[in-house]
Amino acid sequence: MIARYALPEMAELWSDQARYTTWAEVEVLASEAQALLGRVPEAALEDIRRARVPAAARVAELERDRDHEILSFLAAFCEDLPDDSARWVHLGMTSYDLVDTALGHTLARACDLLIGAARRLRGVLVDKAVEHWDTACIGRTHGMHAEPTTFGHKIAGFAFAVDRSIRRLVDAREQVAVGTISGSVGTYALIDPFVEEHVCAALGLGVEPAPSQVVARDRHAQLVQAIATLGACVEQIAVEVRLLSRSEVREVEEPRTAAYQGSSAMPHKRNPTTSERLSGLARLLRGYAGTMLENVALWHERDLSHSSVERVVLPDAFTIAHYQVTAAADLVRDLQVFPDRMRSAIDQTNGLAYSSAVLADLLESGSEREKTYRMIQDAANGEDFFTLLRTEGIDADPVGPERYLVHHDVIYKRLENLRELEH
Question: Which of 103, 145, 232, 296 is the most buried (most CB within 10 A)?
Answer without folding.
Answer: 103
